Amino acid sequence: MGVMTTRQKAMQWLAGILLAVGGFLMVLPFLWMILSSFKPETEFARFPPTLWPETFTLGNFVELFGRMNFGVYLRNTLIIVFFSFIGMFFNAMAGFGFAKYRFRGRDPLFYLVLATLMIPGQVTMIPVYLILNKMGLTNTMTGIILPSLVGAFAIFLFRQFMSTIPDELLEAMRLDGAGEFRIFLQIALPVSASVLAVQGILTFIAGWNSFIWPLIIANDENLYTLSVGLQLLKGQYGSNYGLQMAGSSFMVVPILIVFLIFQRYIMDNYTISGIK
Questions:
Q1: What are the tens digits of pLDDT across the range 162-204?
Q2: Residues 6+ apart with CB under 8 A from 25
Q3: Disulfide-capable partner of 60 in 1, 31, 33, 246 (CB 3.0 to 4.6 Å)?
Q4: Could you tell me which of 264, 273, 116 has the C-alpha nearest to residue 198?
Q5: pTM
Q6: Is the dihedral of CA 111, 114, 120, 124 positive or negative?
Q7: How many CB atoms lie within 10 A of CB 131?
């Protein structure tokens, strides 16, 4: 028994070492990218390449927001992310309606929403573009935001989770004189914290990385997003590795921060659910 215990501990140590090495190898390219964004251009020509910058500089970021107009791209991206979170709130309301209200045509309508999941986004781009063009919304921020304001997957996710909320809890709130919107805010949303965290991550990533649709719908560079600006950076300054690393770091780091923040809420909610 003692030999087995020692062997198990050795296997655990070996597994931990392998996982640590594997994790370090996966993180290394991101670490090198972030640190390289603070290097002057002369350090990129050195061989062998260095991980830690010998001379820290913010010149790449200053040039990024000065010459490359990344401040405008950032503003547009933040606007898209903001309205994407408003759309997530609408998705939660729709999911709550499908889950807890009975009305004529509810199930066929929900199946119709699910059917849109089987249609690739590339198929609907041209019809949506033609519709927005008829409405005069091409080359506008409204035209960029509107098609992605709601999504079938988010509605399905909220509907499935909110279906597990006990009807007795909602009825008790109604007996206390609470309105339907108050029930949604005080009961449905807090209970769905884990789904909100997951959907919050997906919504932020989709809004922050928006590339194809803004590139199609917008002709004015003042409406471009960070992803489009990064592609322009790659084309115009392909040999300037410092600028490319700074732009890539600026795209990746906020996503990592948001994921780490929301991951805590996901794990806390799963822990509470398991205790219940």
A1: 988 888 888 888 888 888 888 898 888 888 888 888 888 888 9
A2: none
A3: 246
A4: 264
A5: 0.83
A6: positive
A7: 14
